[in-house]
Structure formats: C-alpha cells, structure tokens
C-alpha cells in the first residue's frame, strides 16, 4: 500500500487539493445561506416547519439521485458537485441556528430590551453570541459530512479523492481505493478538529469547563488555538486561490475538452486521443474522465461542456437513438452518422475494435451446464443468478434485446450492480452469469468463459470518436488526426491495454502513452 502511495503521490496530492477546495467552497456557501435562514425562521415562526421540513426531505434523497437530477440543469464538473454538497449541508446548520436562537432564555432577551438595546442589537450582541456554540455544532457536523459527500464529485468529472475510490472499485484495485479513502478520512478528522477549535473559541470562557486551568492559562491556550485556525484558514485560501489561478493560466488559445465514461477502456481512450492530438497538432487537450454512462457524456457534448468523447456505435444506435439491434456494421454506423449530425454531433472514422456486450461464466459453470453460446442459457436460466451492470439491465439494446431474442430466458434472480464488483461476485460464486465487454481485461484476470453470440443479439459496438460539429469547424485538423489513430486500435490492442490496467494495476495514462511511443505514433 505504501509503495502504491509513493508511486502515485503526485496524483494523490493533486486530487486531495481539489477535494479540499471543493469542500471548503461548499461549506462556506452553506454557512452563508444556512445561518441567515435559521435566524429568519426563528423570528418568522410560520416558516420554521416548512423550511426545516423541506431540508429534511432533501436530506432523505440519496446523494447519487440528487447529483443525477442536477446534471440536466447544471451540467457536469465542479458546479453540480458543489451545489449537491451545499444542499446536503444546510439541514444541520439551519436547524442548529434555529434551535440555538430560539432556546435563549426569554428573561435575558427581556433584560436586553430593558436596557435600551434595539432588536438588531439584541440579535447581534445577545442572541447570536449566546447561540454560537450550538450553531457551530451544526456547522461542524455539516463540514465533516461534506468531506465524505464530495467523493461523489468524481462521478461527473469534478475530480477529488472520489476518483481514486471509484476507479479502484472498477478495477478491483484495493490500493487505489485506499489511496482515495485514507486521505478523505484524514481530512474528515482534521476538519472535525478545526471545527472543534472554532466551537471552543466561540464559547465564552465563563461557560467552558476549565479543568482546573487558570484564566491566564486558558487565554494562552485560546491564543494558540486562534493561531492554528488562522494558519489553516490561510492554507485553505491559498489552495482555492491557487486552483483559480491555475484554471486561468493553464488554458491555451487552442484547447479542447475530451470526456470519457466510467470504465477502464474509456480512461485509456481519453488518454490515447489526448496524447495523439497534442503530439500532432498545437491543440491542448483537457481530460475529463469518469463522467458516468453514455447519456452523461452525450448530454455534456450537446451542451458544449466537452468537445469530444469516444462512444460505441451499438450504444448510440440502440440506447441513444432507440433503434432495434442489427448485425449490419456499416448500416449501424451510417445511421448513427446521419442522425447524430442532426444534433450537431459529428462522428469520425470508427475504430478497429468491436467492444460488444457479451455474457460470461466461470469454466466451472460452463462445464456444469454445458454452455458454449448465449442460446444454451435459455433452458438453464431458471437455475442461474445473473449479475449485471446497472446500464445493462436498463438499456434498450441489452437486457431488453436478450429477452426479445429469447422469450424463454428467465433468470432465477437478477442483481444489478456497478462496474467490476460483478466480476468479484462471480469469482465468489455469488452469481452464475455476468455481462461483460468483449475487450474487457477483467475477462483475462478472472479467466472467464465468454458465451458466443451466434444470433447477433447485441449490435456491433465499434468505438467511434464523437465531436461537437462546432469544434470540428473551429479545428478541422482534428478529423484527419483522429482518423489516422482509429484503425490502429484493434480488438487485440485494446484487450492488452485493458489488461495492463485491470490486471497489472497500471495507470491508464501511462499505458496509453507507452503504447503510442512503442508503436512510434507519437
């Protein structure tokens, strides 16, 4: 584990800084919204139940669902991730502010009014100072929770430590998971410690348990705590400022954003295309990996949030354009080109590999049930447990296509799960059949039997670069460059590259660059 941390220290540090930056921004904005809102409902009592009730309802919505709902409105990247964390952070802040101010002794407020303080002075000089310990307890809870929630940002290409966690899960790389999880845990502990200091500092000395410490010693201790907080605040501001400056100066006049989906092959393709384009043009490529499924990338491309990503003809044909499956490779490609053009998306030359869907079993199961083809599953399916990806179960060209082709195919149980855990489930004999991609390196890692699709249930899934038509008009040289790379990426090449990442545990960017250099493509 420590060897992995040492080898990837630069990446871990970069993602940690991104995580700190996004979390700090989200918590600060949540405080700016939550505290005034809590004060408001403590004065306007008709609003307290609706506001706190609404905050409770939002808190009950799964974070992934809230993030998914935000994508059509806010797109991908940092903005929706920060907004999601802000929304989740509001309840403890609003509720504790309301409780702290409402719980102040009425006689104290009456005394403040009696000495001539205005309502505003009562609030700023009496109520808020007395309620600060309770308010800070809510802020403390929100800040610690925000560190964990921000790992979700990786699902929409916002970066942060969640990238390592989810990339590790998909490649069953425990060291990579720990490389993301351990810094996140340390950050949560640091945040809790710093917020605890703030909580102490806002509590009057007269209300604190001194534990036998003299008043002078207490003052010296508070001075040290203030210095620690000031140093932490300066560091956080420097991280945020550094990120902002880096964003302003890192871009060149000629720059495009290349997106990718959330599995190994896509990580590799993003880096292959980026390195190749940068080597053969003067265009800089900003890489936005791990954007979820096809619909996320497709919507991001339509909105101009990315300029290019690599999809698969079968996915576009069946899932995006809603056509029934066919084994006509050229027909599928030409249909996709024609219909995507209407949406201002240009498909260039398709690649030389067909990463179609397939079903796979262990050799033990294949021998037990005498399985060679998908059709062989029909009579045995009632005894078998299918473990498939979420996308496979819900896509028009996957599970629906299977059931339509084989009406008698009825699995005993279907468990949908995310990414590579289905391979682990098959290895642990928790499921009997899984879906997989034809070029998946995990097939080699787990030594699985791939069932032949003799009836061509799944359409051809040739990888094809998808560009915003506006981007190609601006940089017409991109088409020629990408068209030269596409035919060199064959089934064999992609299987080996995926194997290097999935089995050997190497970084996709290193595998991509090494291949391009070995083949003298860059």
Automatic annotation (TrEMBL):
It is a multi-pass membrane protein. Residues 16-195 form the ABC transmembrane type-1 domain. GO terms for biological process: glycine betaine transport. Its main location: membrane. It comes from Hornefia butyriciproducens. This is ABC transporter permease subunit. It is found in: Cell membrane; Membrane. In the C-terminal section; belongs to the OsmX family. The chain crosses the membrane at residues 24-44, 64-91, 146-169, 227-245. Keywords: Membrane, Transmembrane, Transmembrane helix, Transport. InterPro entries: ABC_Gly_betaine_transp_sub-bd (IPR007210), ABC_transp_perm/SBD (IPR051204), MetI-like (IPR000515), MetI-like_sf (IPR035906). One of its GO terms (cellular component) is ATP-binding cassette (ABC) transporter complex. Pfam families: BPD_transp_1, OpuAC. One of its GO terms (molecular function) is transmembrane transporter activity.
């Amino acid at each position: 584990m420590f060897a992995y941390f040492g080898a990837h220290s630069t990446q871990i540090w970069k993602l940690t800084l991104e995580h700190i930056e996004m979390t700090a921004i989200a918590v600060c904005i949540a405080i700016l919204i939550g505290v005034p809102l809590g004060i408001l409902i403590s004065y306007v009592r008709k609003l307290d139940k609706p506001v706190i009730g609404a905050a409770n309802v939002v808190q009950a919505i799964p974070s992934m669902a809230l993030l998914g709902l935000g994508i059509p409105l806010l797109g991908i990247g940092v903005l929706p991730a920060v907004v999601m964390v802000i929304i989740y952070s509001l309840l403890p802040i609003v509720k504790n502010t309301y409780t702290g101010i409402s719980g102040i002794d009425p006689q104290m407020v009456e005394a403040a009014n009696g000495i001539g303080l205005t309502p505003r002075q009562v609030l700023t000089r009496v109520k808020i100072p007395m309620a600060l310990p309770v308010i800070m307890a809510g802020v403390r809870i929100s800040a610690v929770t925000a560190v964990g929630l921000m790992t979700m940002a990786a699902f929409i290409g916002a970066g942060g430590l969640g990238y390592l966690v989810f990339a590790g899960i998909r490649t069953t790389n425990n060291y990579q998971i720990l490389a993301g999880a351990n810094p996140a845990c340390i950050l949560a502990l640091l945040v809790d410690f710093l917020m605890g200091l703030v909580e102490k500092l806002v509590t009057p000395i007269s209300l604190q348990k001194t534990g036998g410490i003299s008043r002078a010693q207490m003052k010296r201790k508070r001075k040290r705590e203030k210095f620690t907080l000031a140093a932490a605040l300066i560091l956080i501001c420097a991280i945020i400022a550094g990120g902002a400056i880096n964003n302003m100066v890192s871009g060149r006049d000629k720059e495009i954003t290349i997106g990718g989906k959330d599995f190994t092959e896509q990580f590799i393709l993003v880096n292959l295309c980026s390195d190749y384009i940068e080597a053969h043009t003067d265009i800089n490529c900003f890489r936005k990996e791990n954007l979820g499924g096809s619909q996320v990338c497709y919507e991001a491309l339509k909105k101009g949030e990315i300029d290019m990503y690599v999809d698969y003809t079968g996915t576009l044909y069946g899932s995006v354009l809603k056509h029934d499956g066919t084994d006509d490779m050229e027909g599928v490609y030409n249909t996709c080109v024609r219909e995507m053009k209407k949406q201002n998306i240009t498909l260039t030359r398709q690649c030389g590999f067909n990463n179609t869907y397939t079903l796979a079993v262990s050799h033990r199961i294949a021998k037990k049930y005498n399985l060679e083809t998908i059709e062989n599953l029909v009579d045995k399916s009632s005894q078998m447990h299918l473990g498939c990806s979420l996308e496979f179960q819900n896509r028009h060209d996957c599970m629906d296509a299977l059931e339509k082709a084989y009406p008698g195919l009825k699995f005993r149980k279907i468990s949908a799960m995310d990414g590579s855990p289905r391979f682990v489930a098959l290895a642990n004999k928790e499921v009997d059949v899984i879906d997989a991609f034809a070029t998946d390196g995990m097939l080699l890692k787990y030594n699985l039997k791939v069932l032949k699709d003799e009836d061509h249930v799944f359409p051809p899934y040739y990888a094809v670069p998808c560009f915003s038509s506006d981007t190609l008009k601006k940089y017409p040289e991109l088409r020629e460059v990408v068209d030269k790379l596409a035919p060199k990426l064959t089934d064999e090449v992609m299987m080996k590259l995926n194997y290097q990442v999935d089995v050997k545990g190497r970084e996709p960017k290193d595998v991509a660059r090494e291949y391009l250099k070995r083949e003298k493509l860059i």
